[in-house]
Each structure stands twice: as C-alpha cells, then as structure tokens.
Amino acid sequence: MKKITASLVAVFILLVNAQAQEINTAKLDSFFNALSANNRCMGSFAISQKGKIIYQKTIGYSSLEGNNKTQSTPVTLYRIGSMTKMFTATLIFQLIEEGKLSLGTKLDKYFPQMPNAAKITIGNLLNHTSGLADYVNDTDNKAWITDPHTKAELLKTIAEKKVHFEPGTQQLYCNSGYLLLSYILEDITGKTYSKLIKNRISSKIGLQHTFSSRPNESEKAEARPYRCTTSWVKIKDIYFPNVIGVGDMLSTPTDMLAFINALAKGKLVKPESYNQMRTSDDQYTYGMGLTKVPFYGKTGIGHGGDTYGSHSVTSRFDDDLSFSSCVNGANYPVNDISIAILSICYHLPFNIPDLKPIEIKSEDLDAHLGIYASKQMPLKITFTKQGTVLMAQATGQSEFPLETVSKDKFKFDAYDILVEFNTNKKEMVLKQGGKTTLFIRE
Predict the structure, then answer these.
(1) Long-range pairs for 275-280 at CB < 8 Å and ≥24 separation?
(2) CA gap 64, 381 in Å, rounded
(3) What is the pLDDT of residues 138-159, one digit of tens each?
C-alpha cells in the first residue's frame, strides 16, 4: 500500500555490467550483524540463485513482550504489505486464462455503485489507472485503517470519495482497486480469498508459511511490529482484515522467493500472462501486479510492501538472482538494506557502515527543545528529550527518536529525515524526500 506500503528499491540506474558471481556471504553476515548489534533492524532475509536458496539471515526478535523475548527464526511470519497485490493479480490472471473474466471487463458488472464503474476495467484496477480514491491513504485520519470495518463500510468509503481522474488517463497507486479485485475473485469463485490463496497458489507450489485473512497477531509465529526510540517500542498496525487482497498476507522471505520464481517460470500463470503482469508503459511505474525494481544497469521485477510496522520487498532479476526481505523493526533505511544486499551480491563497492551512535550530553539538547512552526506547511513539530536522545513529534503523529549526527544535526533514517538547527536564529531546517522546509521556534 503506497504511502504505508509499497517501498521499492529506488537506485540510480548506471551503466554497470555487474554480474552475480559467488555470493560473499561473510560480507552479508557482517552487514546484518552490524545492523543487529546497533538496534538498527529486526527481520529476515533470503537470496536465491537459479531457484535455489543460497543465503538466509534472521536478526532480532519476533516478539518483545516485557521480559519475554522471542528470537526470530527462518519460519517467523511477517506481514508483507502490498506484496499481497502480486498474489491478487496472479489469481485474477488465472481466472482470465479460464475465461471467467477479461482485462476489459467493466467494474459495473460487480460494483455499479462505484464512481465511473461503467468506464473502469479490470485492467485499470490492476495497473492503478482507475482514478478511484484510495480508501487507505486518502484520509487525514490515519488511525481509521487500524480499527475494524465491515465490507459495507469499506465499499461505502470508496464509493463516496471523489475520483482523482478519468480511467486510463493517469496512473496513481490505489489500494481501493485491489480491494475490489479481491471481492471480485470471491464473487466469481464462491470461495474466500484465503482459500483461493491456499488452493490456487500455496498448495500448487508448496508454500508452507504463506497465509491470508488472519487477524493481527493471531499466529504464534507472527512477528510483532516495532519502532525504535531509546529501545524497541511496539506499534499499533493496520487492522489487516480491512486490507484483504491489498496488504494483509503473512509470509516468509523464502516463501516469497519460491512464489516470485514460480511465477516467472510459468508455474502459476502462462508466460503471456506473466509478461502482462510485469509490463508497464514508459510513462507508468506499475504493471499489472508487478513493478520494476531498477538497480544499476539491471531491472528486477517484484513488489514492495509497507504497513505501519512492517517493511518488505521481493525482486527477481533476469540473471535468475532473487532476494527478499521482511522487516518488523526498522531504525535504518530499508531501501538502503536492499541496496546493500544487491551491491554485495553483484560485487559492487560497498563498505559496512559505522552504526555506532555519536555521544552527546543531555544538556546539549536543551537549546533545541520547543515547538517549531513553518509557513511552508500547516505542521508543527515539538522537540523534547529522553536522556541523551532528541525526540520529535509532528502534529497528529506519533513521537519518534532522532539519531545524533552532530551537536546541531539529527536524523531519522527510517523515514529519510534530517533536521538541522540554527540556535542563534531559533530556526530548524527539515530535509525529507529531497524537500527542504524551514521551521521557526515559537
């Protein structure tokens, strides 16, 4: 799910002819050990080559409940977020191959109450060109999706929101389209989405640790979601029955590799269907359930997925190297983890980062404390401290810790945030996503 979900590997495309050779597993271990030792990440990772698992690593804990710590294992289950959409699209193409619907089938056949239903096709829903409002992201109340809602409530929310554009004229990531696709699958087959996953995908290719439609924390092996302040703190995540077929599934990195490799090898849909799933027009980012993952001169095919507390990505490259990561605690840019994995796999220059925190005294933070406002956006940020850690909280959002870069500079890698203070001018500059915003202390 886009803003809370799909984080893809965003890497500059350079003309480098890097070939995967024997994987430097010792260097991979060193990287993950550094993340673990410095409380930067908890999760599981796997790499396959020619369809065989050649590397696995699990770091951190699946659960931190009081004094009870449960170490993650290779069979710990993670919420894979929008990677669920790959499964939904696969099921849709299976039904297309069976002649039960087509890419041109109109939405009004199933949901005539939706705006533009007579114009929106199955193809539009698959490649995010429907123009429908996003029931997950098009709201100022981000807590809405963390509370249970009925199917009728979810459909009403989509139907009542204003469309973004006419179908097929633009592309905008839309979770609503995949929720509707999951309901269409159930309507056509008469089976629940979870049974469709089990019967048409998991049982077919031997996925033993992949499930749908399980409520939050209903599985003993399910990783709980955390963020790191001065220590790992549990997060209230999306209520996953709200996002069936959109971002609810549980899986493991090895199962995800089995899925993406089976899909590419024609074991789940025909080659022509797979090509349609992964192909996007030049002006568009997304295909029909799959998206491009560029890395230097190579392009992988896969998907990313973020929930409020999980971060996942799976991608397969044409040289038959695939990788998958599932994270339930991030205090380091998850995109940089993907870059590190691929750089090591392809023997590109990569240095293990120094992740030890910079020491600072508690009193050094006092000059930065207070409320800061900006004329550039209707947002205030309050800075407080917990010991030697500077804490930030934006209007209507949860508090989060900042890592010290220097006496006047702090960062939060998980969200690509850098803040720089000018204490003499009582100013703070926020840098995020390539944008710079000036704040003044009140």
Answers:
(1) 276/93, 276/103, 277/89, 277/90, 277/93, 280/127
(2) 29
(3) 987 878 999 999 999 999 999 9
